[in-house]
Amino acid sequence: MSESESYQNWLSSKEHDKESLCLNCGACCGVFEDPCEHLMMTPEGKSHCRVYATRFGPHRSVSGESLYCVPIRQKIGHSWPGDERCGYKKFKLG
Ligand code: SF4
Ligand code: SF4
Question: What global pTM score does this model have?
Answer without folding.
Answer: 0.83
